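Q: How would the structure tokens look for this protein?
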Amino acid sequence: MSDESRPTPAQTPVAAVIPAAGRGVRLGPGAPKALRALSGTPMLIHAVRALAASRHVSLVIVVAPPDGAAEVKSLLDAHALPERTDFLVVPGGESRQESVRLGLDALPPQYGVVLVHDAARPLVPVETVDAVVEAVRDGAPAVVPALPLADTVKEVEPAAAAGDPEPVVATPERARLRAVQTPQGFDRAALVRAHETVTENVTDDASMVEQLGLTVVAVPGHEEAFKVTRPLDLVLAEAVLARRRLTDGF
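A: Here is the predicted structure in token form.
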């Protein structure tokens, strides 16, 4: 591709990968977490719509459970999604890391910016998605949305048995700490290299890019981009959706 025809950073196509292969055991028995209903609609559909709401995102790849790609494809087909966005479903792996890699493998070559988003964060506002994309396009290899912590944090020595008291060994400076959300955004080449080379100490995709020695930057997250993990989170998510319906016509 000549320099004249190569997209500028501001024009680089953006794709989102949503790993949705986990079962979400903390929400109890039943359907995989991503398929749990939220106001009558599966959380996964809310998450897909949230990413597709961004004017930057032109492709959303959903990574389904290894044996559930057909079910997830039928689910997407059954719900109204933005026509300007393309959607693709691929089977995932046994771990989140493997599922993200399989999503990356399915990316067409023209996509130079990649978002990785938790299906269990169904309510992320489009402003947060846009802020992540714009920071990657401005040159950051990796970007995370993050919030300051409201609580004091203690580092402890883990107890030998569940429920035993745990000695506190340090109190980190709260002003330097952030709670990280998704979507996390990446220069595609950096994320692919991270998945090809990093196998240990993986907490999220950004941590993999950190291990390459590349800079990860944080942009402001949003309180509504919380992760739905426990039953109480479902109650909060329903309340957020009810408020949006009243105030935004959502």
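Residues 58 and 85 are 5 Å apart (CA to CA).

The two ends are 42 Å apart (CA to CA).

Upvote if useful.
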